TrEMBL record:
Descriptive protein name: DUF4440 domain-containing protein
All residue ranges annotated as the DUF4440 domain in the record: 13-120
Naturally occurring in which organism (per UniProt): Paraburkholderia dioscoreae
Transmembrane intervals: none
InterPro entries membership: DUF4440 (IPR027843), NTF2-like_dom_sf (IPR032710), Steroid_delta5-4_isomerase (IPR011944)
Superkingdom of the organism of origin: Bacteria
Pfam families, alphabetized: DUF4440
Length: 144
């Protein structure tokens, strides 16, 4: 299991679990009753549902995908709670029906510490798109 000793560890821990395609490790980053909203607006609650949402795509279209996360900020809202934002670049390979490509998203996560352990309580993922055309955009080179 990937340990998060401080909130700032979350982007790397999420990236590591994703890139290993180990959904049990991904689920272990979340509190049992956590919520997750994927980049398509699909909402689920609970670790079991988070794993169930990700396992099929990691066995198929995202089986050769990688994430690269970059922390933007961490805002403490108490000794045992933080809000964080981080960039996430998903790169998919030949397993994806659309072929190899990259997608940038902005992730907002709320982390809380319970029994001395930091875990994700809520996470929402937003795909960067051009609001006029709906086309996906990458943050570097697009002025974001």
């Amino acid at each position: 299991m990937i340990q998060m000793r401080q909130p700032e560890d979350a982007p790397h821990a999420f990236q590591t679990a994703w890139n290993s395609h180990d959904m049990e490790s991904l689920g272990a980053l979340f509190h049992e009753d956590a919520t997750f909203v994927n980049r398509f607006g699909h909402y689920v609650r609970g670790v079991e549902a988070i794993i169930k949402l990700h396992a099929p795509i990691h066995a198929t279209i995202y089986s050769d995908s990688t994430l690269e996360n970059e922390l933007i900020d961490v805002i403490a809202i108490g000794d045992d709670a933080t809000v964080m934002h981080f960039w996430s670049r998903l790169t998919v390979g030949a397993a994806h029906p659309a072929g190899s490509h990259a997608v940038d998203t902005l992730i907002l996560a709320v982390l809380t510490r319970q029994a001395g352990e930091w875990r994700i309580k809520a996470l929402e993922n937003v795909t960067l798109t051009n609001p006029r055309t709906g086309e996906a955009i990458l943050r570097d080179g697009q002025g974001l």
